[in-house]
Amino acid sequence: MTSGNTVLVAGSANLDFVVRAPHIPAPGETVLGSDFSTFPGGKGANQAVACARAGGVRTRMLLALGNDAYALPLEHSLREAGVEAHIVRTGEPTGVAFICVSDEAENAITVAPGANSQLRPEHLPDLAGVTHLLLQLETPLDPVLAWAQAARAAGVRVVLNAAPAQALPQTLLESVDVLIANEGELAAVTGVEDDMAAAVARLGRVDVIVTLGARGSCAHTQGGWVLQPAFEVDAVDTTGAGDTYCGAFVAALAAGDTFAEAMRRAAAASALACTRMGAQASIPARAEVELMLAQGRELARDELRRYCEMSRGSSSLIP
Question: Does residue 316 lie within any of the structural domains?
């Protein structure tokens, strides 16, 4: 691990129950699946593992677990990745997620939060040495807001992954330095659909990254727009790819990379995560990310630019 700055991730941890099927079932449809496995998951835990394993930075995590067998693989996965876990034990069962992965590598996910719902504002650990706090929305909103405000007051940069999609109070947005969202999540946060520029403008001074799946990502920062095409891979499971992006991005910022450099590193890590099954199990090591950065092939930037221009009211800001 690189020395120096520390990332604190506060959020969810779930045990994922994953079934592969020919396609995602429609309402009322029964689909016969094939492979079944369990994997450590949860947006918070996935992002913490990505910070430590793919990003190679010192990583701590605040999470809640039950006193049950489902907690054990989650603790093991965090420990193996080198994450320092601050665990709140609750009377609720450990959170679980039920995931169907199609042959096209798409997924549908249902989460039972369990212990995650018991996290409270007062559970935030000491922020000494922490430079970046990474948050998501699989835990109650009140503690997320309190943690963001406490971090901002302590001079810690706050990064929020606005997932799962929901409207957010202005007080939370005002406490965030970087917002990471896909197109649906951005629309839920801002109330603006099909116009990326208008949605981003509504968020004010916050830096915004919009993840665009297999196309890549784009961002609006105080310096203007940044485009990052995806790396070409043969995808088998996209579960956890977005979380890998978030964790690798924040780790890169903590290690001193520029915003654009951090986006490229995150793109490489998330692409590699799509080539394996599972959430935390698919997150690559830092050495693999370095190899992808050196030898991997990015999709055409012009294609990403055209897509972003079609998703915006004005194309003049796209580089």
Answer: no
Q: How much is the CA Rg of the chain, to the nearest whole Å?
A: 18
Q: Is residue 269 part of a domain?
A: yes
What is the span of the domain harbouring residue 196? 2-24+35-310
Q: Where are the alpha helices (DSSP H) in 6-57?
A: 43-49
Let me know if residue 318 belongs to a domain.
Answer: no
pLDDT tens digits, residue range 126-169?
999 999 999 999 999 999 999 999 999 999 999 999 999 999 99
Which residues does the annotation mark as catalytic?
243
Residue 216, annotated as binding a ligand:
yes
Per the structure, how many domains does the chain have? 1
Q: Are 94 and 70 in contact (CB under 8 A)?
A: yes
> Residue 179 is encoded by which pair of tokens?
């917002």
Q: Reply yes or no: is the peptide bond before residue 27 cis, omega within 30 of 0.
A: no
17: in domain = yes
211 marked as binding residue: yes
pLDDT exceeds 70 at position 319 = no
CA–CA separation, 125 and 198 (whole Å) = 37
- Range list of β-strands (E), 67-113: 84-90, 95-102, 107-112
CATH code, 219:
3.40.1190.20
Distance of CA 105 to the CA centre of its chain: 18
Query: Does the annotation list 139 as a binding residue?
Result: no
